[in-house]
Specification:
The complex is a heterotrimer of chains A (118), B (233) and C (85). Helix content of chain B is 71%, strand content 0%. Chain B is built from nine helices and no strands. Helices cover 81% and strands 0% of the residues of chain C. Chain C has three helices and no strands. The longest helix of chain C is centred in the C-terminal third of the chain and has 25 residues. The chains are: A mainly alpha (118), B mainly alpha (233), C mainly alpha (85). Chains A and C meet through helix 1, helix 2 and helix 3 of A and helix 1, helix 2 and helix 3 of C.
């Protein structure tokens, strides 16, 4: 099952990168970045999964004594929690800048914003 | 045409790298050293039933401090980029029409329940799946519902800023208390650890995570309030 | 039981790839693309649950799918003129 999740995550990353590189509208590029972000998180969580074990929460089903034999790796989950929150923060920043760009030039086509070109 | 071909060649190269990574991957059969340390020592040292919470708040608490800082930066930059002067803000608000009866009554019924759910999720973060970030997002969605249903009401940005700053100060203060009274920064043994699975267990983790949840909720809310004060272009 | 999990995982993966393709192709309207991106997040949340990660599933459903879709639709309304560039 981890193999399926990792393969799906890689394919979603490639689709998101293709969308970010070929679209012209700035909003479509931001949507593609968000999709690629989800793919990266999927790959990270897929790596921590081990067959036959369960979630890293100690309760009556998984007592604390033999926890090391019954739970999966908890570190990738902690990393992905942080990554999801920061991903939405970066998306909000990108959208705020897209709003400002539209306010100055009234177009969202990225080939018309050429002030930074040589 | 050339550009699209170049993009496809680039993505094909990346796809080859990904495919070789996927082929050579075999999952572990035993936990590695770090994970087995966390699995064995969490019940004794930290006393939290949710191991992911224990990692985020105590074992890797500095990463959480960094993440909260990044979120604060994001909210501040969104407020700076979308800054408007006061007069145009009042003109924008006057142009909106009030919402319908169904939306306002539904909001009055639902918003207290949503806020209660958010507070429940981050107070119980050390026992069940949940915690500060999820609870903060639920709080922000409650504020969002208030913003959508009653756009004429001026959401007080000062209250949100006060909540956010106070939560950040309490978070850092609890961390420094950990240095003074117990083992290190954000050590949760400044309060007694208690029995595993009880409500008042795991030392200071409920308090720390509640403060983190309030701060994250306040930051998302301030981002949403700043976005809603812009005008249609 | 394990076959059921693998079957569900394959179904979710297929639906996720279809939704990702719908979100990035340029022929559809922008609203459909944003909804497809939200659908990718929601299907990823269920996939996280099948991978034994309940904390991450809750966070992705609330923040990655809910808040991000709302932010996109909000900006789409504010930038009405630039949608068909």
């Amino acid at each position: 099952m981890a193999d399926i999740a990792i393969a799906t995550g890689f394919i979603v990353i490639l689709i998101g990168l293709y969308g970010a590189l070929t679209n012209r509208n700035i909003l479509r590029m931001i949507v593609a970045f968000a999709v690629a972000n989800t793919g990266v998180n999927l790959v990270l969580v897929g790596i921590g999964h081990m067959a036959g074990r369960t979630a890293p929460i100690l309760d009556s089903a998984v007592p604390a004594a033999n926890a090391a034999k019954r739970i999966i790796d908890p570190v990738p989950q902690a990393l992905v929690l942080t990554a999801i929150v920061i991903g939405v923060g970066v998306t909000a920043l990108m959208l705020a800048y897209a709003y400002r760009l539209y306010e100055t030039k009234r177009t969202l086509d990225i080939s018309k914003h050429t002030e930074l070109k040589w | 045409m050339i550009r699209r071909f170049t993009v496809l060649v680039l993505l094909a190269g990346l796809g080859v790298v990904f495919f070789s990574l996927w082929n050579g991957y075999t999952p572990d059969s035993e936990l590695n050293y770090t994970a087995s340390y966390y699995a064995n020592q969490t019940a004794k040292d930290v006393g939290a039933a949710n191991i992911v919470t224990a990692i985020i708040v105590t074992y890797r608490g500095l990463d959480t401090l960094g993440e909260v800082t990044v979120l604060f930066l994001t909210a501040a930059i969104v407020g700076l980029v979308l800054h408007r002067d006061k007069r145009s803000e009042e003109e924008t608000l006057r142009a909106l029409s009030p919402s319908g009866e169904l939306l306002m009554t539904g909001t009055r019924l639902l918003v207290p329940l949503i806020l209660l759910l958010g507070i429940y999720v981050f107070v119980n973060g050390h026992l069940t799946p949940g915690g500060g970030f999820q609870g903060g997002a639920i709080l922000a969605s409650g504020v969002l519902m208030l913003l959508l249903s009653d756009p004429l009401r001026l959401m007080s940005s000062r209250l949100i800023a006060i909540v956010e700053s106070t939560s950040g100060l309490i978070f850092v203060g609890l961390g420094i208390l950990g240095v003074v009274l117990a083992g290190g920064f954000l050590d949760n043994r400044i309060l007694p650890t208690g029995t595993l699975g009880a409500m008042f267990s795991a030392g200071a983790i409920p308090i720390i995570y509640s403060v983190v949840g309030l701060k994250v909720g306040a930051e998302f809310s301030s981002m949403l309030v700043n976005l809603s004060k812009t005008e249609n272009l | 039981m394990s076959d059921l999990m693998i079957g569900m995982s394959l179904l979710l993966s297929g639906a996720m790839i279809v939704a990702a393709i719908m979100a990035t192709r340029g022929k559809r309207s922008l609203g459909i693309s944003i909804l497809a991106a939200g659908l990718v997040g929601l299907l990823a949340s269920v996939q996280f649950l099948l991978l034994d990660a309940p904390d991450v599933a809750m966070t992705e459903a609330a923040i990655g799918s809910g808040l991000t879709t709302f932010l996109f639709f909000f900006m789409l309304r504010r930038l009405q003129g630039g949608e068909h560039d």
